[in-house]
Amino acid sequence: MPFEDPNANVPTIEEAIDREPLAIHPETPIPEVVALMSRGREVGSLQNATSTPKRYSCALVTATDRTVLGIFTERDIVRLTASGHSLADLPISSVMSCPVITLSETDLQDIFAALFLFRRYRIRHLTIVDEFDRWVGIVTPDSIRRSMRPSNLLKLRRVSEVMTSPVVCASLSTPIIDVARRMAERHVSCVVATTAEIDGRFLPVGIITERDIVQFQALELNFDNTPLETVMSAPLFLLKPEDSLWVAHQEMQKRHVRRMVVSWDWGYQLGIITQTSLLRIFDPLEMYGVVETLQRTVLQLQHNRSMPSGATLPCPSPSTRPRATLSTLHLCLEQLAGYPELNTPECRRSIERVLKELQVLEREIEKYADLPDCSSQSSV
Prior knowledge:
Blueprint: H1 13-16, E1 22-24, H2 30-39, E2 41-43, E3 52-54, E4 58-62, E5 68-73, H3 74-83, E6 102-104, H4 111-121, E7 126-129, E8 135-139, H5 141-146, H6 152-156, H7 159-162, E9 169-171, H8 176-186, E10 190-196, E11 202-209, H9 210-219, H10 245-255, E12 259-264, E13 269-274, H11 275-278, H12 288-305, H13 322-337, H14 345-367
Parallel strand pairs: 1-4, 6-7, 9-10
Antiparallel strand pairs: 2-3, 4-5, 7-8, 10-11, 12-13
Helix pairs in contact: 2-9, 3-8, 3-9, 12-14, 13-14
């Protein structure tokens, strides 16, 4: 039986390119840039009266010929806020980051090139340029996540596998300036607001993010005298560690957020999952977790086949689709193996080791291809 088309499970790079980024002149005042990033642009059709504002997470500083001179991100705004420097009357060129990491559109064949550069340079915005070094768009973790289709990899992996814990927290009375400083010092994109309970728990009740800091700057809030409680986003929708990454992805899409809080152990433990976390599943070094899941599936199939005829099959979860997942993993690994940047002994050994394990799993799964479909079994 042939494998499902693996391309159906991998985000296409064309859909992941944002071709309408915020592009500004180098002499534009910082407050004007902050206002533009906060306001965003309207996204919607003329036939639909309702439209969703798309916030800009960065601004490209460009020359008149569309070449990129620098970039200014939400994290830069947090850093400047935390430093206490006045943003008034300064041109964006005085605080922009440069040089900018770029990639030619002709070299951007799939998402793996972008993911590699994200990880290598610790960036979240990759500028795409044409053959004349003129910008054509940007790729971000958010734009890649939005282009994701129902992926077997997302359904197989759990939130607990990619979340960050512990998280940076603050009390409700913490001034916003201190929250911004914690973000800058700890290099995090959000701070969770918590309340202390009598039994020693710190329950999550709200969150403040880099994007919020951008909006507060645009509104010219008093960062020294504004407590976290008055401006945090609340109430929180909490994920559980056992939730699948597909559930996390769906909730992010539904709620128009880029990160979510994870809570377990009755609130004693907290974690954070971000859109960047979701993309780790396409990292070859992260695929061992998927291989282990597939190995468990094979063992379950072996057990099912050894059961007497007519017995009830305790089959794997319906979301565990080993054929499609194997196809997706093969596609990811084969394309990654072609990148010169990954041509190191460690990376090559890792990729080859996973490919060998996948070949074994493919042969094992083929042995049990004639097992009845669990979804078609009638319940007693």
